[in-house]
C-alpha cells in the first residue's frame, strides 16, 4: 500500500510529458524516469526529448504535405484546393484547379480523362499553365491538334505508382513506355528534357488526389522521340 500511494503521489505531481511517457512504458520505467531532477536525468531525458520532437508538427517529414513556392497559386479552399483535390481522381481534381486548366484542355483533347481517372496509383508530372504559355502558340496548337503526338507527350508525364518526394529522384519508366529522369532531393527537383529546352522545376510537389500523387512543374516535358 505504501509503494502504491507513493507512486500515485509522484504521478499526480508529474508534468504532462512525464504522464505521457509513463503511459507508454512500464510502471517501473515511469517511476524511475520521474524521480531524478531534470538536470541529472540521462536516458530518460533523451526519451523525453525524442517524444517531444516526434509529436511536434515542425518535426513531421516534408513528404507529408505539398511543398514549393508555386503552391501559393493553388486555391485555399473549394474543390481545387489541396483538401478538395484529395477526394477526386486526378483528371477531375485538375479540372477544379485553375493552375492546371491548360493541362486539362490537353488531356481532354487527347481523350485521356477517363484513363487518368480510372488508373490506380500513379504519379503525374503536371505542367502548370505558364509551362504551356512558354511554347510558341503555333507549335502548341499544332500539338493539340495532333492526338497521337499529344498522347505521347502527356503519357510521358505519367509514372506508374505513387512516388513520394524521397522516391522521386531517379529514372522512371512512364506510361508512354519511355523513361523520364528526375534529379534533386528534398524539395528541389528538376527534369532536363523539356519541349522548350529549359529544365523543368517542381514548383508545387506532393499534391494528393484520390488516385495520384501530383508534382506541378513549370515546363512541359518532352519524350525522347518528340
UniProtKB/TrEMBL annotation:
Organism: Geodermatophilus amargosae
Signal peptide: 1-18
Pfam families, per database record: Fasciclin (PF02469)
SUPFAM superfamilies found in the cross-reference section: FAS1 domain (SSF82153)
Low complexity bias locations: 24-66
Disordered, as annotated region: 24-89
Gene3D superfamilies per record: FAS1 domain (2.30.180.10)
Record-level GO cellular component terms: extracellular matrix; extracellular space
InterPro entries tied to this protein: Adhesion/Biosynth-related (IPR050904), FAS1_dom_sf (IPR036378), FAS1_domain (IPR000782)
Keywords: Signal
GO biological process: cell adhesion; extracellular matrix organization
PANTHER family from the UniProt entry: FI19380P1, PERIOSTIN-RELATED
Domain FAS1: residue ranges: 87-221
Protein name: Uncaracterized surface protein containing fasciclin (FAS1) repeats
UniProt-recorded Gene Ontology molecular function terms: cell adhesion molecule binding
